[in-house]
Design brief:
With 252 residues, this protein is of the alpha+beta class. Helix content is 54%, strand content 15%. The strands form two sheets. A four-stranded antiparallel sheet has the order 4-3-6-5, with helices on both faces. It has a two-stranded antiparallel sheet with strand order 1-2. Helix 2 packs across helix 5 and helix 3 packs across helix 5. It comes from Okeanomitos corallinicola TIOX110.
Length: 252
Amino acid sequence: MESSSFLTINDEQIELSQVVKYLQVSGKLNQFISDVLRQYILEQEIATRNDIDVSTALIEQSIIDFRLKNQLTDAEKFQAWLQNNGSDYATFYESVTFSFKLEKLKAVITEPKLPEYFIERKIYLDRVILSRIMVDNRELAEELHTQIEEGSSFEQLAKEYSLADEKTFNGMMGPISRGSLPDILRAPIDAVNPGQLIGPIELEGRFSLFRLEGIIPASLENNQLKQSLQTELFEKWIGEKIQNLTVKLQVN
């Protein structure tokens, strides 16, 4: 492939081969190629499907909304904004269209797989609410466990003894994804009911007592979780597509 000018800096033409060298030296060439392959996959897929059409009215309304939100209703201001962002109206219109089609493509690809994927992941997506008392030796942790079992206030002991930041909240920790818990803690949590103690458990050289306060089951009714799972599935799909490509770098 013949070398070609990629851009001009201070009247000096920078060849595409030089751009590639810059990316290699900076360690960014692989990411650059990955981004190109990703866009190639998406545009090829969008161009060959007939189930992701987007109405012209929706695109135009979206552009109007964008201009209103960003105070670009004046034609000259909008044109200046486009130029400052290295674009023009046709390119901007194409970008908005692409974003809508991309969301439709993501839905088409992921929605049939989403229920099964959710079931596979659910055990890690459920959240637990815990309270914790963290101390620096096992003997003290065991003594506090005994005191709580005998009726002492977990909350008061957390305030007095815990080394963790949440001591100011009576030891209460926020909802935690079950999947983010270390194995040494996840298994005991599965074996108790809300209100019961766990530990002492040694974590990172300190000893903690936990109390399970509650469980928040994951649900696809949670839009944020649903979108997160769709993104995971979509990126896996793209990754599989990229693995099946034959790619050759042809720059002298």
